[in-house]
């Protein structure tokens, strides 16, 4: 290619890099704002987006998840956009490094999720079960999230009804949540809960993920492709700056 064509190609890729990362930056700001909103006023958020409460995100704290993802996207978007605009090799290399670290972490997480499902269940049990015992029936937002989740997904607790043993809810009402008995009785005791044999939410969500594995795999592959393309473009700009 002639020097003019090379310069035109460089300028085009630079502009695309700026626009792409500007979109990432704005998306990160939006997610960060929503995360702060959920943290400050979770009840109104659930009233608007209650239908989404059956998703896997309800197993963890949605507000912190959105804040962390939003902050990461803000950093990535800023490094990519500002680095391309200022033609800064330092910022472009930082952008490349951050995206590479995230890509490696995603691959590692996917491998762990596929190979160590039992370990994931153990870790979640250690984190979520104590929260169910302490917060269910005490924290209105937490209780509402789990009530909607258990109702929509037709599940009980994380593993089963025994997650509520020695919990605030059981000690106060002397029964398990009605979802643990299939919502057919007002007072759900251990005998009825054992007979109903309602699955835990982890198993139900895992089943749902396996059912939609193709869609999840396609989304994951698309995200991975975007990350690889972003790294390739940033490295191209980085290398071309040496020739300018």
TrEMBL record:
Transmembrane segments: 12-38, 58-79, 91-116, 215-239
Gene3D superfamilies: Tetraspanin (1.10.1450.10)
InterPro entries linked: Tetraspanin/Peripherin, Tetraspanin_animals, Tetraspanin_CS, Tetraspanin_EC2_sf
Domain of life of the source: Eukaryota
Keywords: Disulfide bond, Glycoprotein, Lysosome, Membrane, Transmembrane, Transmembrane helix
Pfam families associated with the record: Tetraspanin (PF00335)
Covalent S-S links between cysteines: 155-201, 156-180
GO annotations of cellular component type: lysosomal membrane; plasma membrane
Membrane topology summary: Multi-pass membrane protein
Subcellular location: Lysosome membrane; Membrane
SUPFAM superfamilies documented for this protein: Tetraspanin
Function: Structural component of specialized membrane microdomains known as tetraspanin-enriched microdomains (TERMs), which act as platforms for receptor clustering and signaling. Participates thereby in diverse biological functions such as cell signal transduction, adhesion, migration and protein trafficking. Regulates neuronal differentiation in response to NGF by facilitating NGF-mediated activation of NTRK1/TRKA receptor tyrosine kinase and subsequent downstream signaling pathways. Plays a role in the inhibition of TNFalpha-induced apoptosis.
Stated family: Belongs to the tetraspanin (TM4SF) family.
Subunit structure: Interacts with SLC19A2. Interacts with NTRK1/TRKA.
Protein name: Tetraspanin
């Amino acid at each position: 290619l002639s020097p003019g064509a090379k310069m035109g190609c460089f300028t085009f890729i630079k502009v695309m890099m700026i626009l792409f990362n500007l979109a990432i930056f704005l998306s990160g700001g939006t997610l960060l704002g929503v995360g702060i909103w959920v943290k400050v006023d979770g009840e109104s958020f659930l009233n608007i987006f209650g239908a989404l409460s059956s998703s896997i995100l309800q197993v963890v704290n949605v507000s912190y998840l959105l804040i962390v993802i939003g902050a990461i996207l803000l950093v990535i978007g800023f490094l990519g956009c500002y680095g391309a605009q200022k033609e800064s090799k330092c910022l472009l290399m930082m952008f490349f490094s951050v995206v590479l670290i995230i890509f490696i972490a995603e691959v590692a997480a996917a491998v762990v999720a596929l190979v160590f499902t039992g370990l994931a269940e153990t870790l979640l049990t250690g984190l979520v079960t104590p929260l169910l015992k302490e917060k269910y029936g005490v924290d209105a937002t937490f209780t509402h999230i789990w009530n909607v989740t258990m109702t929509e997904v037709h599940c009980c607790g994380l593993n089963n009804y025994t997650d509520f043993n020695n919990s605030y809810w059981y000690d106060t009402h002397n029964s398990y949540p009605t979802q643990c008995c299939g919502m057919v009785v007002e007072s759900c005791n251990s005998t009825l809960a054992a007979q109903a044999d309602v699955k835990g939410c982890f198993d139900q969500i895992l089943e749902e993920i396996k059912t939609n594995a193709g869609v999840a795999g396609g989304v994951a592959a698309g995200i991975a492709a975007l990350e690889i393309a972003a790294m390739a473009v940033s490295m191209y700009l980085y290398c071309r700056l040496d020739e300018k």
